[in-house]
Amino acid sequence: MERRPDPPSWETDDVPVVLAGTGLWLVALVVLGVLRLTGTGDVQDWWLAMCGCGIVLGLVGVRHCRRRQAHLGRADTAEQPTAPTAPAAD
């Protein structure tokens, strides 16, 4: 049985998705911080640390997505054929 070629990859803008997730981690951090400061809830230290890690990893993810998009954009322009130029008249 012969292997079929891979389908073309989908190019998507992942930055808004990663930013939304990072924003949710930030909201969780704020809510837990308020609960801890007011003494309303039993907030564990590791919950706050987990939110902080989620925010940091989200920012790393945003940077990765932007660098990947820039790299793919350069690769796309490098693959485009250029029109042949006419020889210079002497």
List unreliable stretches of 5+ residues: none
Helicity, in percent?
55-70%
Rounded mean pLDDT is 87
Q: Which radius of gyration do the C-alpha atoms yield?
A: 24 Å
Sequence of secondary-structure elements: HH
Shape: elongated
Question: Class by helix and strand content?
Answer: mainly alpha
Distance between the termini: 59 Å
Described by strand count, sense and barrel closure, the largest sheet is: none
Q: Helix count, per DSSP? A: 2
Strand-residue fraction? under 5%
Query: How many β strands by DSSP?
Result: 0
Q: Please, how many domains?
A: 1
Produce a short descriptive summary.
66% of the residues lie in helices and 0% in strands.
Task: Describe what this molecule looks like in 3D.
With 90 residues, the protein is an all-alpha fold. The protein has one domain (15-77). The protein is built from 2 helices and no strands. The chain has helices at residues 15-38, 45-79. The radius of gyration is 24 Å and the shape is elongated.
